[in-house]
Specification:
0% strand, globular, mainly alpha, 10 helices
Length: 205
């Protein structure tokens, strides 16, 4: 009974720690707002894309490969490639901001792809998992494999529900925006992606 209670308290702590990271504005948040304009369920698909990167990463850390993700060479490669990809996505979004606002055109990549790219392109996502995330995974090991699996599910569901909330809120409120507001919001989202891309590249050096 004590083990169950401790596991419950651990999962509660995982929920709040995960949510504090999930709610931080970043590339994933930017594309969730942009894609949510056309599809209220975009956040769910973005979360699935995020999970395609995140679940294997969690298993690798659980199996003891955490040192790989702290390697300076690995972080450099992710920073360079990821930064270029985010800048490219940001430029695409900026160029299409007017047609999206006035003609209702969607962005040139689907939500699942957006989730995969914005997650995999972020070196600080891997750094978080190599530090805070690795500590949580190590703690989950105290409850055996079931503890780790429950941890992984709870953490990902924080991503899922937050991303879905953001996309639904965007979709439901878009009728309150004017065309100029549409363009400004898409412009801000594109700038966020470009800034993060430049930051990732500059951090390599």
């Amino acid at each position: 009974m004590e083990l169950i209670t401790n596991l419950f308290l651990f999962l509660v702590s995982v929920f709040f720690i995960s949510l504090s990271g999930v709610m931080m504005p970043g590339p994933v948040f930017a594309v969730t707002v942009a894609k949510g304009y056309k599809d209220k369920n975009a956040g769910a698909f973005i979360a699935f894309g995020h999970g395609i990167i995140e679940f294997p990463l969690m298993f690798l850390i659980y199996l003891g490969f955490v040192q790989f993700f702290t390697s300076s060479i690995v972080r450099m490669i992710i920073g360079l490639i990821g930064g270029v990809m985010l800048i490219f996505m940001g430029i695409q979004m900026f160029r299409s901001r007017k047609s999206t606002a006035t003609k209702g055109k969607d962005l040139p990549y689907n939500s699942l792809t957006a989730g995969i790219i914005t997650t995999g392109a972020n070196p600080y996502f891997f750094l978080w998992w190599a530090t805070i995330g690795a500590t949580l995974i190590l703690s989950s090991g105290n409850f055996g494999l079931i503890g780790f699996l429950l941890f992984a599910v709870v953490h990902w569901f924080c991503d899922f529900f937050w991303d879905l909330f953001v996309s639904v809120a965007t979709f439901k409120s878009k009728h309150l925006w004017g065309k100029r507001t549409h363009e400004i919001i898409f412009g801000i989202c594109s700038v966020i992606l470009i800034i993060f891309g430049l930051w990732f590249i500059s951090s390599v050096f």
